[in-house]
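Q: Structure tokens for this one, please.
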Amino acid sequence: MTDVQRPDTDVTGTRETTGTPHSRRVVLASAGALGAGCLLAACGTDTTTPVGSDGGDFSNDPVPAGSKGADAGSSNSGGDSSSGGTVLAAVADVPEGGGIIKGDYVITQPQKGTFKAFSKICTHQGCPVTKVDGGGIFCPCHKSTFSLDDGSATGGPAKKPLPETKVKKDGDNIVAA
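A: Here is the predicted structure, written as tokens:
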């Protein structure tokens, strides 16, 4: 009797498989490419669909002008003024050519007697701004800067202005209009 070789074995006696065999090198290269793709996707900025109410890259829910906000029950929330607006700050606390950050707002006095209030949430990626100095409003997260006059973006990655809340002077206070 003669030895018959079966068609599904090779010369070494190992079984052939259908399709392309995957070497360790191919598997590791594929895993590396997948990891790099995930990393790049995580570092990117989605510019297709803005989700903030102002069209920014973040979702925020600012307190409506004239409302007492989340801290309405606390005794130091400012309370209401005689004209019905919520007290945001004392006039004496807001320096001319500068501003303060109080509660959810950045309150500025770009020129003597002119007061403005903006959301303290940066329009780039939703970090709170932390400093008003040298004629600008600053976000520490990505170094965006904003104007005291109108809240417009003046530097850094932010492109949209800080949302403004209308305010007025009422006696010794700055109140939501």
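A few notes: The radius of gyration is 30 Å. The chain has one domain: 21-177.
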